[in-house]
Amino acid sequence: MSLFDPGDRGINPADLPLASRMRPQSLEDYVGQEHLLAPGSAIEQAIRQGKLGSVVLWAPPGCGKTTLANIIAHYSDSVLVSMSAVTAGVADIRKAASEAKSRYQLTQKTTLLLVDEIHHFNKSQQDSLLGYLEDGTFRFIGATTENPYFALNDALLSRARVLPLKPLEPSHLEDLIQAALTDDVRGVGSAECTIEPEAVEFLLQISNGDARLLLNALETGVMMTQPGTTVTLATLEQVLQRQSIRYDKKGDSHYDTISAFIKSVRGSDSDAALHYLARMIEAGEDPRFIVRRLIILASEDIGNAEPQGLILASAALTAVATVGMPESRIILAQLVTFLAEAPKSNRAYLAIDKAIGDIKAGKLPPVPLHLRNAAHSGMKEHGYGLGYKYPHDDPRGWVEADYLPENSGLSTPYYQPSDHGYEAKMGERRIRRKQKKSGE
């Protein structure tokens, strides 16, 4: 079935939501995605000539994936058949292929198969598309909000070009608002309403680049406003009590948010860290996941500059598991602000990687005899443990001794304390020990 004309589906266009009624039907009307569809660009020309081929449209919700699929089908004079990967299976793909073959034999019309939410297809379902793409039964458009390079098989990606779409810019969304308010047929122009600038700003803020959300919110606002009057900020605030948080725990939003969160803590910006923490809390993220990431950060990015960081992070893991939400937000906030404001050092992290690098490079000199374990008296006769000095026998708790193999060629020193926080004191003690050892 075609999605280009709602009448094909027995639907009165007037009964559709505003976002569907305002859907553009040509490249001239399409808003945004200039990085792909600039006049004269390769993709724009391929669409106009009906030679684009199979593609995967990757974008957040409301950026025009389905609309662009309709436009591609229009210019290629193809029949657009749609299915959702949430509910469809291999049998549906086979049925669509059979109908596409019959359609071509009867009408010479090619078929363009749109699979929405393609990331929900498993491997066998994705593989079932391959043969039909190879023999030209249909061309394929996959629409997804997830990263296709993670969600889709390499075999399918090799047959379909990935086109990343971007969230619409505020200027694009403002154009859509004005178009909807002035269009008497597809829009809400018959209500003869205007809109406050503050209300426009509010729509731009809550829509976050999502044209569907913006237009449907605008339609509700107009419906709650007397004809011939102005849609106000107060009206829209009643329509939209709060913004729906875009956060898929298995998708890009999840990884982007946790990435920004960790980088903010690492960068000692507690306000930014709390902002991303609040996003995750309100989206229902597992607090234990958040704390586990902070435990790693406490060693990787803070380390010995503030050793209490790892202790506090480890304690927080137990605390949030015991207390639960919503009170655990307080524990998380304490931990985040402590770690963000703490002095930073990644020297321990660098040190172990440097040491591992030596091992991987094959630098494995024999362990010095005086450090070897003399588990048997006969081993002592071979020099095992001979000359070892027990540090606790010295009042200083330290003795001048060599612990690394001689002439080892190792890339030491591995650990070089920074001058941040507690690690600075560690560095000072280390310098003093070296000076005593060298007799300075």
Report on this model:
- The protein is elongated, with a radius of gyration of 32 Å.
- It starts with 17 loop residues before the first helix and ends with a helix.
- The strands form 2 sheets. The chain has a 5-stranded parallel β-sheet, sandwiched between helices. Strands 6-7 form a two-stranded parallel sheet.
- The protein has 20 helices and 7 strands.
- α6 (123-134) links the parallel β3 and β4 (139-144).
- It has 440 residues and is an alpha/beta fold.
Label the structural class.
Answer: alpha/beta
The second-level CATH architecture of the largest domain is: 3-Layer(aba) Sandwich
Q: Give the helix level as a range of percent.
A: 40-55%
**Please, how many helices?**
20
Global morphology: elongated
Order of H and E elements: HHHEHEHEHEHHEHEHHEHHHHHHHHH
Q: Identify low-pLDDT runs.
A: 1-9
Query: How many beta-strand segments?
Result: 7
Number of domains: 4
Summarize model confidence as the mean pLDDT: 85
Distance linking N and C termini: 88 Å
Determine and state the CATH class of the largest domain.
Alpha Beta
Strand content: 5-15%
Query: Rg to the nearest angstrom?
Result: 32 Å
CATH topology term of the largest domain:
Rossmann fold
Biggest β-sheet description: 5 strands, parallel
- For the biggest β-sheet, the strand order reads 2-3-4-1-5
The CATH superfamily of the largest domain appears as P-loop containing nucleotide triphosphate hydrolases
